[in-house]
Design a protein that fits this description.
- Helix 1 runs antiparallel to helix 3.
- It is elongated and about 100 Å long.
- It is built from 11 helices and 11 strands.
- The protein is α/β, with parallel strands linked by helices.
- The chain has 2 domains: about 100 residues, no CATH class; about 210 residues, von Willebrand factor, type A domain (Rossmann fold, 3-Layer(aba) Sandwich), CATH 3.40.50.
Length: about 350
């Protein structure tokens, strides 16, 4: 695996050119030492007195010292590496469609059962420190399980899903955001029925309390909030509730990524429910736009196996994060270890330091 490395002080890399000079200095010292030895009247007598020469071992400490110097010079340039690390703080909201169209059987045994099984498998693979909340949506959206670490409570909430009419995709995103940011006062009713009102404005106050100035909301860069993400699973088109594009913009302004998962077939299927029938189609364009707006990704799951693979991919993607980390300290540690080994071997083998 290639790890890209950059340097804060790249100009100091020119110091590496001193390494060939050190090699030349070492070679010159060896030759000078050899010339000094040749001045003896009888070299054989000297060899006999000294015993067998050190051979290759005499080069090991200098080589280790040279490596230590090279590593220290690299550290002085302050290298920065992009390293994938486990996420220390992570919250995931599963927003799952429970509209009547989820009874369609193009995904076996049907879309709802397949999505429940995949979601439970997803929870089983998540690290235990990852917190999860569940939002179910049809004609409206509601939190069926607040954010928790308890996998048992999450599984119980998933098993209790009940099919309902209509599909409020945008409302599901807003309710998920309200679970992540409970202090921001999301008003789905105002957003749905009063398009000219400010959904974050105070809706009322006690008469004995003075009106307080509303704190201005400052948008952040899309995808910049790395502590949480939303996984939105649906099989249809929005028919009611908050506009999907507006809800996606709200998530993007808060830096929250919304990963969208489309379940079922694009052509759709005709289903019957309580005396009525209709063709349910997957609105891929809207889901792709939500993912694009929030700097996330869209996944299509046409079968139960594909749905499980999508959740496996999301599990690995959401539980790690890439960080730029300065590794100068690590290189300095390596250089120190090499220098200690060099000095230790020199003392052990030759009773001197180099």
């Amino acid at each position: 695996m290639n790890i890209p490395v950059t340097f804060l002080w790249p100009q100091l890399l020119w110091l590496l050119l001193t390494l060939p000079l050190l090699v030349l200095l070492y070679v010159w010292l060896l030759r000078r030492r050899k010339q000094t030895a040749l001045r003896y009247a009888s070299l054989a007598i000297v060899r006999e007195a000294m015993g067998k020469g050190p051979g290759w071992r005499r080069h090991v400490p200098p080589v280790l010292l040279l490596l230590a110097i090279a590593t220290m010079l690299l550290a002085s340039a302050r290298p920065i590496a992009s390293i994938v690390l486990p996420s220390q703080e992570q919250t995931i909201i599963l927003a799952m469609d429970v509209s009547g169209s989820m009874r369609a059987e193009d995904v076996k045994p049907n879309r709802l059962v397949a999505s429940q099984a995949a979601a439970k498998a997803f929870l089983a693979e998540l690290p235990r420190h990852v917190k999860v909340g569940i939002v179910a949506f049809a004609g409206s959206a509601q939190v069926v399980q607040p954010i928790t670490l308890s996998r048992e409570d999450l599984v119980t909430a998933i098993d209790k899903f009940q099919l309902q009419r209509a599909t409020a995709i945008g409302s599901a995103i807003v309710v998920s955001l309200s679970e992540l940011f409970p202090g921001q006062g999301f008003d789905i009713g105002a957003m749905t029925y009063n398009r000219n009102s400010d959904p974050f404005a105070p809706q009322g106050r006690a008469i004995d309390k003075p009106e307080t100035e509303k704190k201005a909301f400052v948008p952040v860069a899309p995808g910049s909030y790395t502590s949480a993400a939303i996984i939105l699973l649906t099989d249809g088109q929005r028919t009611t509730g908050v506009d999907t594009a507006e809800a996606a913009k709200m998530a993007a302004d808060r830096g929250v990524r919304v990963y969208t998962v489309g379940v079922g077939t694009v052509d759709g299927e005709i289903i019957g429910f309580e005396g009525w029938s209709m063709r349910v189609r997957l609105d891929e364009d809207s889901l792709k736009e939500v993912a694009r707006t929030t700097q996330a990704e869209y996944y299509y799951a046409g079968t139960a196996d594909n749905l499980k693979k999508v959740y496996e991919t999301l599990s690995s993607r959401l539980t790690v994060e890439k960080k730029e980390t300065e590794i100068a300290g690590l290189l300095a540690l390596v250089a120190s270890i090499l220098a200690l080994f060099s000095a230790g071997l020199s003392v052990l083998w030759f009773n001197r330091i180099l």
